[in-house]
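Reading a protein record of the kind used here takes little practice once its layout is understood. The fold follows as a row of integers, each naming the local backbone shape at the matching residue. With these conventions in mind, the following record can be read line by line:

_____
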Amino acid sequence: MREKRFIPIAFLFALAFAGCQQKSAVPQSGLPVVDIKVGTQNYHMEVAADDYSRMRGLMERDSLPDDHGMIFVFLQDTGEPFWMKNTRFPLDILFIDSGGKIISIGHMKPFDETNTLPGGMYRYAIELNAGAAAAAGVKAGDLVTVPAAVLH
């Protein structure tokens, strides 16, 4: 009789553990992930470093875990704007120059196809959940250390 009780309890424990694992799991994009500190917070960043992944960005996802983001890496400085085509949740975007200085912070609304301008030339852009930049205490002029793993 004890064995019959053990199986359901073990099964429930396994389900609870799996549920906890999924909440913090990186979205299944197949992109490399690096850890980057932005302000006071640490984030797991998916690295969008080729034309396809930069174009795709966070499109067609329903959400992003609070401690995750995406860093867009460009081969050279650019002034290219961003937009939110097929992006379902609001985002903050940090435009960062080649030295790691935040040149501007923008706020983007779901499905908004108007351009979000960087306000200058940048090498990297970081997208975080809306409000994350303010919560991390970052502002234009602050420095972000971009890991060597994403440098070109």
User: Anything to note?
Assistant: The radius of gyration is 18 Å.
